[in-house]
Design brief:
heterodimer; A: about 575 residues; 10-stranded mixed beta sheet; 7-stranded antiparallel beta sheet; 14 helices; B: about 550 residues; alpha+beta; 6-stranded mixed beta sheet; 13 helices; about 30% strand
């Protein structure tokens, strides 16, 4: 494939497809050099189907050509109202019908060879699933970093509003991709009330308020495809990364689709940027040469296999030769891939670690511990002023950077140096500890305001504390919990992102609890009207732990033959 | 002042009800002098380059970017090149009426965006204070396509602006397709069915047409001050706009900036020219533009009055000069006559430029085969962006290129203005093309070009030698032609030589002459043309060089 000749690929730019309601949609076609009959792969995007590349990032047309040169017809469409497609863009609403209309048009194409795949990343992955659901005749789906499931990050997670959606709404705010770096994000994200951040951004034509007001109601019905996907019975390839914002969503889609047909899952050591061009280095950590993945090759091999290509194609595609599907996950720390029969791993064992301290767990220099047994009751407390939030990233973080392909910083030392962070750490491990799956915490907390947020972060502390690799985090807005009352003890249970990691000997497990993680998450004004408060209140948060008021971290510990090889 | 406030996709209603989309970037909560940019390339793209227009916000302006009609988020129909003076007028007056504007409005932008500035200038909205067009041409040229030679390059541009948003033309197989005939179907060969190409081939649209550009009279009626910017290796037609505004009411307040850059370099000049380190001379063109804006939008006359009327980069010496008028009226046209011993073909031929006509052989003959055309250096994936100035020896080695070189100069010769070439030519076909190119031959042999080849080249399609009505050649008949050259402000240093080259193609920039006399979109067979350039005393073919200082021996 390295020397694949793409120069003879036939191209047709801006073909017009009529949607069911007469709206004209724009589709670019990439065809193999010789006329013939070929399977069709459809992908659709709100981010311009024929955009130029950026430094380090090839233009998407290069991927379409690479696939076309291997015997696929690639159809790359602009979604309604974006790029060169007519109509107006309304996220989610039209993608099923418009995708199906495009597939119907492709079936009439004289070189159509009878097999159809759909693929995409981000919103494009949603488009792929929506088309598969609406069309019912799709043979395979490849879904890279799909949009979050409702409440699983879109538009909030654990009840906390995620600000990356406001950024996304800006990016897709016009027919052209909008300039990510221009708006004064620090002041926009700092705006109260949260509901009016669209006005602070200067956009009166986006869906911010609509998304914030919608719970699980009807305006999400177009978006929530999981029940339909369960009934689909088609093979799917799901690609995500441990730090990908869409990791939870990917697992949801995978689990739903697996009800009908075995699925393939690839989880690499990538974030939202590097999952789109899988790299060996993410977040400042070198994850080894195996951390890369050739996405073009992977997509081609997947579709060839699922379209029933000959044994040669199967041999070239070891990841997909098993018909029963399964998960390929990258174990960080070990920096190797491992195969699982399914996801989540069925054979992991819940191991509990108990939060403990002498009452001074603030910062990584504090006395917070993670013990294998509970000890006497104690409490730690932080005072949180939303005006000085704990920051998600060490520098003034910009989504603009991440949109341009920069990955996150995964060292979280800037968080654990804050007095607002309660930090609980095990002693250095004497033997490797492997976790695969989602960690959980159950905390006993108490706050003196009408609302507050709790974030929990799991990390690997390198020997002598040299580095602190963030592995996963979780979020909860207390006022969304049934039974939450200010000043009273409250039980908070949070699931963290999935991870697959080996804590090596000499390393330590750390849990960090913070009241903010800005600006990935909006600051909680800590008043009664979360979306409407214009002023903020200072909160005192108490975290109780011990024999009777328990606070516990539960790790999904795995004993796996391939992974136990590291036991020395 | 960094960006303090943004307003996105604000709708500007034009007089016919069509809404245009505008983004507004503000430095604070007050009213600001206002700079408008109208573009077909995506208004968001204009903001994306951190070195470009967004810096005006730091300088205290409200920056307004607008998609032209039919592009991006603006409604209506997009017709390439069609002028829209009413849209520009309505946008300027809308901006002036906004609560963030001081009602003093200027415009910025290059290329097509400069075209839109002229729309505004000729439609004279009351709140327009100045325009600063970079790299966009002048009044309508009397011939089709200026030289009579259509540019194949325009399909690349039409692809870029196909649909509502920019396409990435690099996706298409240009290299494989550019030799396709007939040219009428070049678009479908590339996979395009919806570009303006067919209408261009049929002559229905033409960027030099009166619906696309303005007459000299319209330029002369401009009332606002104009800063015209261009680079020596950029769109040379821009100088014709500068000529035209000399009769405008605002002529005294008009300014010219000519730098050593190409089309892309108007905002970010390169520190190396033709292998020479010129970083000392690199200026920030946007800073120059801003000084002009400050004078006319902020009333900062004191600091800015000193801005020279013409700031022109002197190539060869590689330094900036200021002039009250440019080109200087004191330059005088000196003839350099073509001569040879009968074979001026190629770098090793015997072609000479001399002070007197009629020595040696009477003519040079070459065979121009359009099936093996003279290539320009266009990178087909990005087309418009060369990396000038180029060493043209790679072309001058061909035996279908006539090369005439002067003796070594004994003293520095400064040429300033536009050169001309008068030639006596004959051909065995009813039509052919002549391209002229001037280069500076350094003592080490490098032949550095003095102008871009990818913007309207110095050339003539001979059927149009007497005007827009075609007159075909009679085989063997000698005709006298004049080809306007490019503008220059250049020192040929002592010890250097002046070189004129003549050829009959510049592919794939320009459509090859099929030698048939048929409409250019129809030819499927390309006939070689045997062309003769005569240089006897009776047929004194010559280069006319506008010499400002120094003498030719």
């Amino acid at each position: 494939m390295r020397f694949l000749d793409t120069s003879a690929v036939r191209i047709r730019l801006d073909e017009r497809v009529r949607a069911a309601d007469g709206t004209e949609l724009s589709v670019d076609l990439y065809l193999p050099a010789e006329t013939g009959r070929y399977p069709v792969l459809l992908t659709r995007t709100p981010l311009d189907n024929n955009r130029p590349g950026r430094p380090g990032l090839a233009p998407p047309a290069e991927r379409w050509k690479t696939l076309a040169a291997q015997g696929f017809i690639v159809a790359a469409g602009d979604v309604r109202g974006r790029g060169d497609s007519e109509g107006s863009f309304r996220p989610f609403v039209h993608e099923g019908a418009d995708g199906a209309a495009t597939l119907a048009w492709l079936r009439e194409f004289d070189e159509f060879g009878g097999r159809i795949g759909v693929f995409g990343s981000g919103y494009g992955a949603f488009c792929a699933w929506a088309a598969a659901v609406a069309d019912r005749g799709v043979d395979a789906v490849a879904s890279i970093s799909p949009f979050g499931a409702v409440g699983e990050g879109l538009p909030h997670r654990g009840g906390v509003v995620r600000l990356d959606w406001l950024f996304w709404m800006h990016l897709v705010g016009g027919r052209n991709v909008q300039p990510p770096g221009i708006p004064p994000w620090q002041s926009i994200f700092g705006h109260f009330p949260i509901r009016e951040m669209d006005e602070a951004l200067g956009r009166n034509d986006i869906w911010w308020r609509e998304w914030l007001e919608s719970r699980d109601g009807s305006s999400w019905s177009a978006f929530d495809l999981l029940d339909d996907i369960k009934r689909l019975r088609i093979p799917g390839l799901h690609i995500t990364g441990w730090w990908d914002g869409a990791s939870a969503a990917s697992h949801r889609y995978y689990t739903a689709a697996a009800e009908g047909m075995p699925q393939d899952l690839i989880v690499g050591p990538w974030d939202s940027a590097t999952v789109r061009r899988p790299a060996g280095r993410t977040g400042g950590f070198d994850l080894g040469p195996r951390a890369t993945l050739d996405l073009d090759e992977t997509l081609a091999a997947f579709f060839k296999t699922k379209f029933g290509a000959g044994p040669a194609a199967r041999a070239a595609a070891p990841r997909f030769e098993r018909d029963r599907g399964g998960a390929q996950v990258f174990i960080t720390g070990l920096n190797e891939w491992t195969s699982l029969e399914s996801w989540p791993a069925s054979d992991s064992e819940a191991v509990r670690l108990w939060l403990a301290s002498g009452g001074g767990a603030n910062t990584r220099r504090g006395d917070g511990r993670l013990d294998s047994e509970p000890s006497g009751d104690a409490l730690d407390s932080v005072t949180h002023n939303p005006a000085v939030p704990v920051r998600f990233q060490p520098e003034a973080f910009s989504f603009a950077q991440s949109a341009s392909g920069a990955s996150l910083t995964l060292d979280q030392a800037h968080i654990t140096s804050r007095d607002e962070a309660l930090v609980y750490t095990t002693a250095p491990l004497s033997a490797p500890l492997t976790i695969v799956g989602q960690a959980k915490v159950a905390l006993t907390v108490q706050v003196d305001t009408a609302d507050a947020d709790i974030f929990v972060l799991l990390s690997d502390v390198f020997p002598a504390g040299a580095r602190e690799l963030n592995l996963a985090h979780g979020a909860c807005r207390l006022a969304t919990l049934r039974g939450f009352t200010p000043n009273e003890l409250c039980r908070v249970e949070i699931e963290l992102d999935a991870c697959g990691h080996v804590f090596l000997p000499g390393h330590a497990v750390r849990l960090t609890v913070t009241p903010s993680l800005f600006p990935l998450y909006a600051r909680n004004p800590q008043g009664a009207d979360y979306l409407g408060e214009t002023k903020t209140a200072v909160a005192t948060l108490r975290l109780h732990h011990g024999n009777t008021v328990m606070s516990v971290l539960e790790l999904p510990v795995l004993h796996h033959p391939a992974l136990d090889a590291t036991d020395e | 002042m960094p960006v303090a406030r943004t307003l996105w996709n604000r709708r500007v209603a034009c007089r016919d009800g069509i809404e245009l989309a505008a983004d507004i970037i503000l430095p604070g909560p007050d009213r600001y002098p206002t700079v408008v940019l109208m573009t077909p390339y995506g208004r968001s793209r204009s903001l994306g380059n951190p070195r470009a227009w967004i810096r005006l916000v730091d300088m205290g302006y409200a920056l307004v970017t607008v998609d032209v009609r039919g592009r991006g988020d603006s409604e209506g129909d997009w017709t390439p090149w069609l002028k829209r003076p009413n849209d520009a007028y309505d946008v300027i007056e809308w901006a002036a009426a906004q609560p963030w504007s001081t009602a003093d409005v200027g415009m910025v932008g290059g290329s097509y965006e400069a075209r839109a500035q002229w729309w505004a200038a000729v439609s004279r909205p009351p709140h327009l204070r100045c325009i600063t067009p970079l790299a966009f041409g002048g009044p309508r040229h009397p011939l089709p396509y200026g030289t009579g030679i259509p540019l194949q390059y325009w399909l690349w541009w039409m692809t870029l602006v196909l649909g509502r948003t920019n396409q990435h033309p690099g996706a298409l197989p240009w290299e494989a397709a550019m030799g396709h005939t007939p040219l009428a179907s070049l678009d479908t060969r590339l996979g395009l069915t919806r570009t303006a190409w067919r209408r261009f081939v049929e002559g229905e649209i033409d960027f030099a047409h009166e619906e696309a550009t303005f007459s000299a009279d319209e330029y002369a009626a401009v009332e606002v001050p104009v800063l015209i910017g261009v680079g020596w290796w950029d769109d040379q037609e821009t100088f014709r706009a500068w000529e035209a505004v000399q009769t405008a009411k605002s002529a005294a307040d008009c300014r010219l900036l000519v730098g050593a850059w190409d089309h892309a370099g108007n905002l970010s000049p390169r520190p190396v020219l033709g292998g020479l380190d010129v970083r000392e001379t690199v200026i920030d063109p946007l800073d120059h533009v801003e000084q002009f804006l400050a004078r006319h939008l902020k009333g900062s006359c004191g600091s800015v009055a000193a801005q020279p009327r013409c700031k022109v980069f002197l190539t060869g010496e590689n330094r900036w000069e200021t002039h009250e008028n440019w080109p200087p009226v004191s330059a005088s046209e000196i003839p350099l006559f073509l001569a040879s011993d009968g074979d001026a073909r190629g770098l090793n031929g015997d072609g000479r430029l001399t002070g007197h006509p009629g020595g040696g052989a009477h003519a040079d003959t070459y065979v121009a085969d359009p099936n093996t055309p003279v290539r320009d250096m266009s990178n087909l994936a990005i087309f418009a962006w060369a990396d000038p100035p180029l060493d043209y020896r790679y072309l001058q080695r061909r035996d279908d290129v006539l090369v005439y070189t002067s003796a070594e100069l004994s003293q520095d010769v400064t040429a300033s203005g536009r050169y001309r070439v008068r030639l006596y030519v004959s051909s065995d076909r009813p039509d052919t093309d002549i391209f002229v190119n001037l280069s500076d031959v350094h003592p080490d042999g490098r032949a550095i070009g003095l102008a871009a080849t990818n913007e309207p080249p110095a050339a003539l399609r001979l059927r149009y030698r007497n005007g827009p009505e075609p007159e075909f050649l009679t085989p063997g008949e000698v005709v006298e032609i004049e080809i306007p050259g490019t503008w220059m402000h250049h020192v040929f240093k002592a010890g250097h030589r002046i070189r004129l080259t003549l050829s009959s193609s510049a592919f794939p920039l320009a459509v090859r002459n099929a030698g048939s006399g048929r409409p250019w979109g129809d030819d499927t067979t390309l006939q070689p043309q045997t062309n003769t350039v005569h240089h006897s005393a009776q047929h004194p073919s010559r280069l006319l060089l506008p010499v400002l200082a120094g003498a030719l021996d």
